[in-house]
Amino acid sequence: MNRLRRLLTASIAIAAMGVVSPAFADTKGKIYYMVPTLLDEFQTESVNAITKFMDDVGYEVVTLNADNKTDLQQSQMNDTILQKPSAIILAAVDFNALAPSIDKARAAGIPVMIFDRQITSTPSDLTSVAGTIEIGQVAAGEIQRLLKEKNGAVKGKVLQVLGDPADPYSLDIQKGFEDKMKEFPGVQIISLPAMQWEASNAGTIVSDQMVANPDIDLIFLHAAHLSVAAVAALEAKGKKPGDVMMISSNGAPVGLDLIRKGWLNVEVEQPLYAQAAALAMFADKVVNKQEIKPGNYNVLGLDSVMTIEKWGPNIKIPGAAITKENVDEPRFWGNLKAPADKIMPVQ
Amino acid sequence: MTSPRQRATAEFILDHLVWFMLAAVLIAFSIFVPNFFQIGIFANIVEQSTFVGVMAIGLAIVIIAGHMDLSVESTAALAAMITGILFCSRGIGMGLTFAPEWLVIPVSLVISLAVGGLIGFLNGFFTIKLKMNAFIVTLASYIWVRGLVVAISGGRSAQDLSPSLRSIGIEQVLYIPLMAWIAIICFVMFSFIMGRTPFGRHVTLIGGNAVAAFRAGIKVDRLMFISFILAGAIAGLAGWLLAIRTSGATANLGTGMLFNAFAAVVIGGVSLKGGVGKLPGVYAGVLLLSSIHTAINLMGLPAHYTQVILGLLVLAAVLLDTLKIQIRQRFA
């Protein structure tokens, strides 16, 4: 009987220790991360980064994947609001369609942070972006440089391979790129979308265009994984690294590998780690509804600017152009070396 | 009153209508689309038909047998991802190698076929043995197999496929890419199997009237089970080719191909009711779709038009199928 009592007491003690274990005791609350898809490496790594950085500042992260479906993400938002989390991080499938869900969450007292895909049509509590339009602009600058180096002036033929034509992310990059190229009428841009961001569709486009327009100087692809298929198509046409200049965006590991092999000239990086770290730095302020002050902040070594926009506090982190010279720097998320140092909350 | 000669001519045209449509479309594009009329573009069309074409063979066999297989796209993606993980050297690739190096070709092919065959076996088991609805069973497979692709890859990609495998995606024979030859050989082989062997004839009979086939002594369940396994294995082959084409695999590889394969099957004259259809027609359907995709690429039209045209083409194909039956009745 005594043995049974001791066993029971020990079980209760172990259970109690579990309840008040440091992991539970230190958690300030749950934050839901609404990831648009897990079918690309940027989003997959964003889950790891956000989970790690939020853990650094004391929050537990629950991730919900919307499989690129707007209606599913709206349902997930509704379900999440009922869970009353400390905050929601949203990387929207569709920038505008999720605006009512953001309003609903905030009306229920749940702060909403926007990650990567900027939503300007409704207020939110913090936005952390590199800026998709800016990515297009950075790419345009690099393309101008490369065309000038090759042709002596900013002129030539550029094939732009977009992502899915229904994805505002790709359309924004296109806008930023084309706006900045307007001042160079000597550059002919052929724009075609790779439906559903599917790599073999990009390969098909490149394959056709290299036959129809063999004088293409440069190919600009809106995601690094598309450039893998583009390279395969170029190889099949007997091309060697450097024969056709290439640029892609987002900074995924595949893109960095292609730079090392000489196929890609530039990869325009989205500073994934810094974008995720910025959310963690301000998480306490967002959750406790404290004021976020505008100004310059150092986010993982990057000079970032916090402004107060009509949609709320907005921190913009500069995207970088990755070339053969700097490709091995660990700050690029494509090297998959997440910063080991703990993120410190902004006081 | 029609003469036997008129009747034979009409039958020939009706039986090969999709080839006439393909010829008309190619002539029209050659005249009106700049840069279309050249060997390189025709080679591209044949090459781009490879993946959907191979996938459509298995799908057509199951449909002719009177069933449905919605899982072929995800099955191809799984085979591609496993090929990528095992034989790519970067990303999540393990970079397996063999001595001699060319052994990677048969080994990876057998693995892809086995992966596809296994999914087909599961589809067949639930549909034939447990008498579950094929549409639901294969829809479930479409979902869980794609989920498995994401799970085993962790959303990451595999790149840098073994050079021996990549050579299949680069080499050409008589101006036509080697991969396209593989698709053509598959079509010839399975056209022969479906048209000239007891297996093919029995599968067609089963699709037309399974009860009558059973009463005639045909092993209906066994042949339908084999059809599912074949569709899976052929989808595995499509995935293997897809991995070679893209020199690796991403988690969303092959997305959207199911609907293209379905469109090609229907345009190619395979009846969704089963029992009717020939594989050469399916190949013509795939070439037709690929020609349209290529023309839209060259014209620089927004890709949405491809989907609009695709949808209208499927509708036209079904309409023509209905008209064919009426015309045949008139000549009968």
Largest chain interface and its two residue counts? A-B, 39 and 44 residues
Measured by DSSP, the beta-strand proportion of chain A falls in 15-25%
> What is the C-level CATH assignment of the largest domain in chain A?
Alpha Beta
Helix content of chain A: 40-55%
For the sheet with most strands of chain B, the description reads:
3 strands, antiparallel
CATH architectural group of chain B = Orthogonal Bundle
Number of helices of chain B: 14
Query: What is the CATH class designation of chain B?
Result: Mainly Alpha
- Overall geometry of chain B: globular
Q: What would the CATH topology of chain B be? A: ABC transporter involved in vitamin B12 uptake, BtuC
- Catalogue the unreliable spans of chain B: none
Describe the protein in words.
The complex is a heterodimer of chains A (347) and B (332). Chain A is elongated, with a radius of gyration of 23 Å. Helix content of chain A is 42%, strand content 21%. Chain A has 347 residues and is α/β, with parallel strands linked by helices. In chain A, the strands form two sheets. In chain A, strands 2-1-3-4-5-13-12-11 form an eight-stranded mixed beta sheet, with helices on both faces. In chain A, strands 7-6-8-9-10-14 form a six-stranded mixed beta sheet, sandwiched between helices. With 332 residues, chain B is mostly helical. Chain B has one domain (16-30, 37-331): ABC transporter involved in vitamin B12 uptake, BtuC (Orthogonal Bundle). In chain B, 74% of the residues lie in helices and 4% in strands. Chain B has a three-stranded antiparallel beta sheet with strand order 1-2-5. In chain B, helix 3 runs parallel beside helix 8 (178-196) and helix 5 runs antiparallel to helix 11 (220-245). The termini of chain B are close together. The interface between A and B is large, with 39 and 44 residues.
